[in-house]
Amino acid sequence: MVATVLVVDDEKNIRRTLRMVLEGSGFNTLEASSAEQCLEMLRQSEVDLIILDIRLPKMSGIEALQKIRSEPDTRKLPVLMVSGHASVAEAVQAVQLGATDFFEKPLDRDRVLVTVRNALKTWQLQREVEQLRADVEQRYEMIGESPVMRELFAQLEKVAPTSGRVLISGESGTGKELIARAIHRLSPRAGKPFVKVNCAAIPAELIESELFGYERGAFTGAQGRKKGMFELANGGTLFLDEIGDMSASAQAKVLRALQSGEISRVGSERAIAVDVRVLAATNKDLELEVKEGRFREDLYFRLNVVPIVSPPLRDRSEDIPLLAKGFLREFCEANGLREKPIDDEVLEALVERPWPGNVRELRNVVERMAILSGDRITLDDLPEEGVLSEGRRESAPPSTVPRGLGKTGERPTLREYRSRAEKEYILQTLDEVGWNISRAANILGVERTNLHKKMRSYGIRREET
User: Fold this and answer.
1) Which residue has the higher pLDDT, 31 or 440?
2) Both 262 and 357 in a single domain?
3) Quick one: CA dihedral 314, 139, 170, 357, positive or negative?
4) What does each C-alpha distance from 414 to 117, 172, 417 come to in angstroms?
5) Which pLDDT does position 73 carry in this prediction?
6) CA distances in angstroms from 264 to 203, 210, 215, 257, 260, listed in the order given
7) Number of domains present in the structure of the chain
8) ∠ CA(383), CA(387), CA(388), 5° rounding?
9) C-alpha–C-alpha distance, residues 180 and 189, integer Å
10) CA distance 102 to 352
11) For residues 318 and 458, what is the distance between their CA atoms, to the nearest angstrom?
């Protein structure tokens, strides 16, 4: 795409010279003889860069630059200031007001072309970065109008501007990471790094080196110095996802970092100061984990300054149509597909489902329908529910106690019942996907590492089927 340059100068010969130089190098040009004409042309035409003379009749170039920078559509537009007799004070003022560059008359052809090309290249890169940032923010945008979501948004607006630590709890697939990203985006640290660490996905023997970094020779394979997540997040936000799966030794080091604001790389005793806001998330009952000795009480209190609960989808079922349409639109855009209409009957059926995998499961179902449906999504495209579906509940009502639970002749405790139901659900899902762990984890709405842990804890092995 050919860039368009607006040349603003009251001298006709200067405008003519710049037009010949620029058009000879492949640029389109527009001309204005005054600041007033320049501002009017910006409202009417698409311009990629402005070459603006400082000394103009009536409104000066400096005043025009102020107006250009005050308009949302032109605030970031590259502006090159030109003058044959500007004072140093005027040049400094132009730069302070946001001039991209400054050069003097008589104009040098090569200098003009290099400056214009560099300014346009920088402008293009800035727009690409902004677009990428907008795409990321759209992907992590939180959707919902239900009372529970309005209450959550109100909480986020209060906690985000502060430096307080936040512990986000909730079931898998409810959007805990979205909450963490929203807090970061609304905070004074928004322009700094947001670093996510999945504590469940990193082996216990590597978690410390990942969090705090290491020095060369700290262990076998440490061939060079590496910064840890705390250092990478310096000035920004560190999100510790699945904090309940962190090893005891790593918990102790995280506690020290939170207390002192300093960390030490593995293999070094030198303290490194870090300025990090820590957000943590878990799908576990951390209070229970503390009582049973699996999580440090002092770390729990350090993290749980502001507790936020990520609501399950069943508590916000009125948001399901909005979420489904949003996921469908996003998927079609990302895959170059024409957006498909979705029948009201499908949305009503989605609202009635229990969604044990929460928002993540809903997204998977919507994407599956988008892929396999025709020109529109109908009830025929809606996949059948798995275990815990309405059909399953009809054949096994909630009052039915799974076999093998509880002591002989006694009803099971709620915890025992949940454990057995969860084990049966995992087994059934594994059977349905031919024991493909990745597909099963995707359907269940959990990380593969978490599914492996569940299987080990329940003693699930393939021979059971």
Assistant:
1) 31
2) no
3) positive
4) 69, 20, 5
5) 83
6) 20, 12, 10, 9, 11
7) 4
8) 105
9) 13
10) 64
11) 35
Beta strands in 174-327 (DSSP E): 194-198, 237-241, 262-263, 272-273, 277-282, 306-309
CATH code of the domain containing 325: 1.10.8.60
Do 173 and 358 meet the contact criterion of CB atoms below 8 Å apart? Answer: yes
Give the range of the structural domain holding residue 176, as residue numbers without chain letter.
Answer: 147-311
In a domain, 284, yes or no: yes
Say how many C-beta atoms besides its own lie within 10 A of residue 298's C-beta.
13
Q: Per the structure block, which two tokens stand in for 176?
A: 């805990």
Q: What are 66-115's pLDDT values in tens digits?
A: 999 988 888 889 999 988 765 667 777 888 888 888 888 888 899 999 99
The predicted model scores a pTM of: 0.59
The pLDDT tens digits for 167-198 are: 999 999 999 999 999 999 999 999 899 999 99
Residue 393 lies in a domain: no
Compute the distance between CA of residue 58 and CA of residue 36 in angstroms, rounded to an integer: 9
* Residue-by-residue DSSP string for 356-388: TTHHHHHHHHHHHHHHH--SSB-GGGSPPP-TT
- Cα distance between residue 129 and residue 211, in whole Å: 28
Strand pairing category for 237-241 and 194-198: parallel
**With b meaning 16 or more CB within 10 Å and e meaning fewer, what string describes 335-354?**
eeeeebebeeebeeebeebb
Task: Mark whether 450 and 326 lie in a shared domain.
Answer: no
The confidence score (pLDDT) of residue 386 equals: 55
Q: How far apart are CA 126 and CA 436, in angstroms?
A: 43
Cα separation, 109 vs 79, whole angstroms:
18
Distance CA 142, CA 153 (A): 9
Q: Are 327 and 342 in contact (CB under 8 A)?
A: no
**Strands in 33-130 per DSSP E:** 49-53, 79-83, 101-104
Tell me which residue of 437, 426, 413 sits closest to 465, measured CA to CA. Answer: 426
Strand partners for 281:
168
Q: Which residues pair with 194 in a beta bridge?
A: 237
- As a whole number of angstroms, the longest Cα–Cα distance in the chain is 102
